[in-house]
Fold this protein.
Amino acid sequence: MDARLTLPERATSARGFRERQAQLDRIVREEMPRNRREIQEAKEFGDLSENFEYESARNRERQLIERQSRLREELSGMEVFDFAALPEPGGVAGPGARVTLAYGDGSRRTISILGDWDSDEALGIVSRRAPLARAVEGRRAGETCIVEFPDPDFDGEFVEETVSVEAVEPLSAEVLAWAAG
């Protein structure tokens, strides 16, 4: 198989990558400078040992530094992938496929599975790392799988549901445009 058609271990769409990069830029250009000003203003209140504003601003600084570091690490290891380059899914659910699912209550849902950081509820785009995508991966039309969902009635609890794969198709032009986007 042509190596360019294989999805890398860590991959996301151009849109997903740009969105993470924008998060990092916002932290570096807006949030960290604002936090430095807050620290400086809090220092002006005097006694730092009992200065809530100062402690709060310093805690926020630690959080921002940690988030910045994590984002830089994530971005450095992620590959931008053109999902239009993937071959048609060949009837097998996974990244680069549009999958129609049937639930036990008779409802249906169509999802498009993309990369690690890709999701858009309105378009039915789910990350390949999402539990639903992982549960259907490798399945063909007519096969079933068990999917775990958070229970809306109990915090931290999960519900299992059997889901049938009805169809596996190529990604729509709309989803491909979103990914490139």
In short: Residues 100 and 110 are 4 Å apart (CA to CA). The two ends are 27 Å apart (CA to CA).
